[in-house]
Design goal:
Layout: H1 6-24, E1 34-41, E2 47-54, H2 60-72, H3 74-84, E3 92-97, H4 100-129
Parallel strand pairs: 2-3
Antiparallel strand pairs: 1-2
Helix pairs in contact: 1-3
Subcellular location: Cytoplasm
Pfam family, one: RBFA
Subunit structure: Monomer. Binds 30S ribosomal subunits, but not 50S ribosomal subunits or 70S ribosomes.
Length: about 130
């Protein structure tokens, strides 16, 4: 059995190329600090779902604006990928916002708050015993 599927290798290559292309080649001033967090490619290599995050921006309007810029530039990005990656057919690019990072940060802060609250209660209980 193969260790890596072809779709996984193509997804990894697309993620690397898109990260560079988005940062260096797209000159739209509306585009923020975009990070390509994951790429999944369909089994037939027809579509690639690109999941992005925005550094320091959680506003829904900014997210929509960045997605609009990337969707507008997908033809350019696809042609650049065709020049850089050896594929017979370059997948159609579909951009999505990845909320997992924001959700993870929110959960982490809730856990930190709960631990601090527990610590305060524990310290208060010890003070009452003394």
């Amino acid at each position: 059995m193969r260790e890596f599927k072809r779709t996984d290798r193509v997804a990894d290559q697309l993620q690397q190329e898109l990260a560079v292309l988005i940062q260096r080649e797209i000159k739209d001033p509306r585009l923020g600090m975009v990070t390509v967090s994951a790429v999944t490619v369909s089994r037939d290599l027809g579509y690639a779902d690109i999941h992005i995050t925005l550094l320091g921006e959680n506003d829904a309007t900014r997210i929509d604006e960045n997605l609009k810029v990337l969707r507008h530039a997908r033809g350019f990005l696809r042609s650049q990928i065709a020049n850089r990656v050896k594929l017979r057919h370059v997948p159609e690019l579909r951009f999505h916002y990845d909320e997992s990072i924001v959700r993870g940060q929110r959960l982490s802060s809730l856990i930190d708050e709960a631990v601090a609250d527990d610590r305060r209660r524990h310290d208060d209980d010890e003070d009452e015993v003394r």
